[in-house]
User: Fold these one by one.
Assistant:
Number 1:
Amino acid sequence: MLILGIDTSCDDTAASVVEDGVRVLSNVVSSQNELHKKYGGIVPELASRRHIEMIVPVVDEAMSKAGVDFSDISAIAVCHGPGLIGSLLVGVCFAKSLSYTKKIPMVAVNHLEGHISSIFLEESAPDFPFLALVVSGGHTSIYRVDGYGTYTELGRTRDDAAGEAFDKVAKLLGFGYPGGPVMDKIASQGDPEAIHFPQAKLSGSLDFSFSGLKTAVLNYTKKIPDSKKEDVAASFQKAVIEDLVNKTLDAAQQEGIKRVTLSGGVSANSALRRRIKEKAAEKGIEVYLPSIQLSTDNGAMIASAGFQHFKKGKLADFSLNPKPYLPLGSADR
Ligand code: KG4
Ligand code: ZN
């Protein structure tokens, strides 16, 4: 069964054709990095306009790369939130039009459920239950996943998302936008032990807080303007990673679960991938990571999650509206 997945939640226009929720036939992502670079961050109005320009060519390319026709598609899965309203609107309106004109059923997918589902596109996927750390530019949460569509949030960030912290620190170090991938590279040339940046202590909780860390980096660079940027990047990155890894593994132990997954843009970070594998192995916990390509936003993860909704008959109708705020596990899906 073929599902066409569409994601326009933020600054990437993405479409993909996936077979049976697990096999990626095509995965096309049109990045807007160049467009937003000169502003040092995403400009929502520009993002929305670029999605309008790109949605047709991106979907066309996904269909032709998969070598399929609309008559082969069983359902269109579209991300309807959370995300930027003007961006989400483009994907949702496009999916509705396509569904109407081609008479293909439509399913609505939560972006975070999409990120968690990216792991099912890999050769080795975890059995249920597992713990999922979703760590992206807009979100940082730990979920207990007991089955498709069954999520319990165990912890979340109380302020900035980890990706947002990467982006803001990259900006203040003068590395430009988007910050995560550059920080990853620069940090690998620095000493993570050079500077001790404090981690937020939220005792007894699996919540995160990254805004204090960002301020600590800012204060440090003001105090020592000629500090080695590679060391600042590496030390900042280490503080974020230690917190993400420790809380995720603590959550696994607390729940008595031996399997954890990472997903979302920050899970592409090479040091994070290394560290979680290392520490999990010490505790006898298995780690499942999506490929780098499927860590950041893509349509395949939406198609994978959408396949499960479609199998359960959870179709969306034309009253579907995008929702900028859409907690995972809420009834309104
Ligand atoms: O999942 P994603 O593509 O979009 C959202 O749903 O937010 O995540 C984007 C975030 C950005 O903040 C970006 O800087 C971060 O993921 N990111 C990284 C890396 N690659 C992307 N952060 C750290 N290291 C990376 N290699
Ligand atoms: Zn995302």
Number 2:
Amino acid sequence: MAAPEPRVIRLLMELRRQGITDTRTLGAIERVPRELFVAEPFLDQAYENRALPIACGQTVSQPLVVAMMTQALEVTDRTKVLEIGTGSGYQAAVLAQVCRRVYTIERHKPLLQAAEERFRRLRIHNITAKLGDGSRGWPEQAPFERIMVTAAAHDIPPVLVEQLAIGGIMVLPVGEFDQDLLKVTRTEAGIDIETLGGVRFVPLVEGVAEE
Ligand code: SAH
């Protein structure tokens, strides 16, 4: 593989400094060209460690948050993951590098279509994406060993906990404006919750968007 560009190396160094130690996560960030997932006016900022606007009033998360969430999910190349909130498709593309299959749901059709086009272009074949209300999960494909929610819910959605396998991990932001990133582990008895830090995501909205 070609050596990464200087701006990619800088980003990887910053992620390491900020506590991303998992080499599979860092490798995934290195391989996925973020410039294909951001809007034209922000191309020059594609490898800055910041969230950027995408269509439909949404955002592609900051690389550090993508890396933190990917690392916290503890996937292997045998894991099946559900992602809620496809957005640009960047997080799904990163997950697709480190797990077996990603199921991802988006409520805005234009975002879903653009993300699917990017997956085709990058020849990423282990992502199944659909238009829908992710707050209901994907019952036909449940249970999931891992779930990642990339939009903020008010509380931990019970429906998603139900679709998580016993021993499975869900990473999600919870709260209104200032949110906590939570790592929820489903146990035989219920759930264990660990707080990973403060984050800011767009809200999880019920129903499919009318375009
Ligand atoms: N993971 C995305 C981040 C997108 S921002 C990326 O890497 O670019 C959050 C996304 O969640 C938005 O696109 C928003 O439309 C979507 N979203 C919010 N509520 C949703 C719901 N109930 N079901 C599916 N998608 C939802």
